[in-house]
Model the fold of this input.
Amino acid sequence: MTSTSVPPPAFRTITAANPSPHTLNGTNTYLLGRGRVIVIDPGPDDPAHVGAVFEQITAGGGDLALILVTHGHADHLGAARALAAGGSARIRRWGAGDEPLADGETVEEGGVALRALYTPGHATDHLVFHWAAERVLFSGDLILGTGTVVLQPRDGALEEYLASLELVARLDLATIAPGHGPLIGDPAARIAGYLAHRRMREGQVLDALAGEARTPGEIVGVIYQDLDPSLHPAAENTVRAHLMKLVREGRARREGNRYHRP
Ligand SMILES: [Zn+2]
Done:
């Protein structure tokens, strides 16, 4: 007679074999439920990953019921078609897919109810999924397991990103399940840390403009001195997002590709 006190996990994680500086140890694909299974973020279009996800779904006698996608980047969406092929599972995401999801919409399969929340900033089509019953947030690339998130060099991206963080800060969470990296067990502290990090970067950008006009690339050289050079283009996108916010707020001015303090 044996017994175990370990409860079955509320969800399963399958990490794709696509590690990189942008994807950390790879994209996390999440499986919710055991019968009518929901997949969150199919992952990259890699046959080995698709096979591993199918294996996990069917090993327990389950069926793929629904595919949810946090955003349309290839490392999250890529495997959706291959995973859906031959079955009846719908692919649902923001602004595209079989039946576009609305902000605040609740989807339910196999007793699992998830609420989709529109959270742009990293991408214009970004959703997170809140599983209120388990107090889990599937955060996509809004919040990562380690490090911080790259922003789009798009006017308004930073303001949208900050609003998205403030939105999820109001949820009652025990766990954040990110698109990349390990599970986060201290959601409130992590979200507060992300907001503080963006304020810190804004201060650094302003400081970099204190003496002279600089290009975004020069600002990266000043404030990201320890960064792997392969990540400089991504850092420059984030700096541009900060500069656009500062210009809009009248705290920086742009002349050509150079920025200065007013
Ligand atoms: Zn990603």
Summary: Residues 65 and 89 are 5 Å apart (CA to CA). Confidence is low (pLDDT under 50) at residues 1-7. Residues 23, 27, 73, 75-76, 141, 179-180 surround zinc ion (CB under 6 Å). The helical segments are 47-59, 74-77, 80-84, 157-169, 187-208, 216-223, 232-248.
